[in-house]
Amino acid sequence: MTLTLQKNTKAVLNYYKKEGIMEVTNWNLPDVVGRGIHYFGQIALLYDCLLKSSLTHDYTVFSDFDEQFATAKVPGTFESIMNSGRIDCSYVRSALMYPKPRRVDRIEGGNPLLRSAKRIFRETEIFKSGARSKYICRGRLIDVPLIHYVRKFKFKDDVMLDDADPENTLLLHFRSLPHELVNITAETRTLVHVASLKRNVFQIWKNIFGSA
Predict the structure, then answer these.
(1) pLDDT (0 to 100) of residue 102
(2) Which is nearest to 103 in space by CA: 171, 177, 189, 170?
(3) Which of 166 and 115 is assigned the larger pLDDT?
(4) How far is it between the farthest Cα atoms of the chain?
């Protein structure tokens, strides 16, 4: 599996690595092997991440780069989603999110213009739990992780499970514009973070590139 990054994106990624905020594990597989184990290769990655993160963090979040957790809970944080630690594992159902045309992030007048942060439309269809859903769990309780749900817990009877109510918490899976007509609805839960995102992006951009 290969992740190709543009120059500026790679610079941002390296900044977070240098600051100790994130760790990147390189899996170098021959292309012919990578194509053949796409699904089960992801499972191997999950295991690797799970084992490492369980030693250093209480919770592990299983999601992709193009997905965003959105919650109506206040504050809009993972801690709120997990009810301040009272929930051991939460399954979050997903819906596809579409940007408006020309919603491109860029620097304008010395300030970041985060158009993608104002994506406010998603499909009305919400996938069933276990189909495209992702999860947040105490990693030390997981025995067999899969991509969209946990297949087996170590001590199932002692695990506080939660199927997040999509009216409160939803996983937004960003996609390009659909090729066919779909039913869409407004999704505004992410807008609460726009102001802080703009401040943070502006400061980090200056730290990396010297000036916006």
Answers:
(1) 55
(2) 177
(3) 166
(4) 56
Q: Could you tell me the pLDDT band of residue 1, with boundaries at 50, 70 and 90?
A: very low
What the block records as the tokens of 136 is: 């947040």
What does the chain come to in residues?
Answer: 212
For the chain, give percent helix, strand, coil, nearest 5.
Answer: 35, 25, 40
Q: How far, CA to CA in Å, does 26 sit from each of 45, 67, 184, 208?
A: 10, 21, 38, 23
Q: With the C-alpha atoms ordered 124, 130, 133, 135, is the resulting torsion angle positive or negative?
A: positive
Q: Could you tell me the two tokens for 125? A: 């269809």
Whether residue 26 has pLDDT greater than 50:
yes
- Of 184, 179, 189, nearest in space to 118 by CA: 189
The Cα–Cα gap between 53 and 60 comes to 7
Dihedral class, residue 20 (left if φ above 0, else alpha if ψ from -120 to 50, else beta)? left
User: Which has the higher per-residue pLDDT, 119 or 147?
Assistant: 147
- Six token digits for residue 103: 């919603």
Q: What is the pLDDT of residue 190?
A: 79
- What is the DSSP secondary structure assignment for residue 130, as one 8-state letter? T
